[in-house]
Design a protein that fits this description.
Structural class: alpha/beta
Distance between the termini: 48 Å
Shape: globular
Helix content: 40-55%
Order of helices and strands: HEEEHEHEHEHHHHHEHEHHH
Oligomer: single chain
Length: 352
Amino acid sequence: MYLICLALLLLVAFLIALAGITRAGVWLIERRNPPIGAFADIDGARIHYVHVPAAGAGLPPVVFIHGASANLKDQMLPLRPLLEGRAELLFLDRPGFGWSERGDNETLAAQADTVAALMDRLGIARAIIVGHSFGGAVTTAFARQHPQKTLGLVFLAPVSHPWPGGATAWYYKLTAVPVVGWLFSETIASAAGMLRIGNATACVFSPNNVPKGYIGKASIPLVLRPPAFRANARDVARLYDYVRAASPGYREIKAPTLVISGDRDKVVYATVHSVGLERDIPGAELVWVANLGHKPDWIAPDLVVGAIEKAAGAPVDLQSMASVVESRIAGDAQGADRYPELKVPDAELAPG
């Protein structure tokens, strides 16, 4: 009995120590990655966003929806310089990510409604919606629930359809479990995540090179804070059920739709998701890019801008633009030996 009590005390002391390390880590992460935009209260949740006006712009407004484990910087850093002054831009931290509060946004439908409400708050009547990876699933919800606000759709390496196995990483499944998940996220997840965030990011970009300083510049460690980690886990755990129920309704989407995917994507099954969107959304165009991984926004931002222009009605030859990108990245081989045929779940400890 004495030994059992001693073991329990040691376990409690160990967990308290880990919780202390997590708290210190959270303080350091937040100190290094402060909010960079404004805040709006949307149905009780404080949403962090960056709004870039552009009076007299040649393009319609563009709204960006980031993927799992990420925040608004993940799309803003590569795409804002190419679009600022040409279009009104809205980048936001999805509820529970970056500096946005979670609120009652536990479903993709609720998150889509929050995006629509923020657009209303900022006076954006209609926009082209650009969704990356998990953000692609939220984009499908937005297009179906708010067709009157949807001027066009651009999907970047999206998640949209049921995929083989429907697997989710064990740590996300564990984190989604009440009580046990809270304890895990408050003690172990943050420290463990920092140890593997570099490899996870390399895999997400593979075979393309990770841009210098990407993890720090894009504030990716923000997702390792316990509340954000739990929000991410719940999102990922519910993703398969959402796309299984929602995908038959994609044929109702009428907005001009462009889909950009790489044939070396190790995070999502492009032959399921991207091909499925081209098949199911009337008139959708799929642009395949050889030797491209999961990050078109960073590796092929010029092609993404071309897709936005085409969604706005411009006569853009995206297939020719894709060929230019392919020539540029033909020699990329980062991770080719380290991750030869690796298929990570549809979200990792890196943006996806």
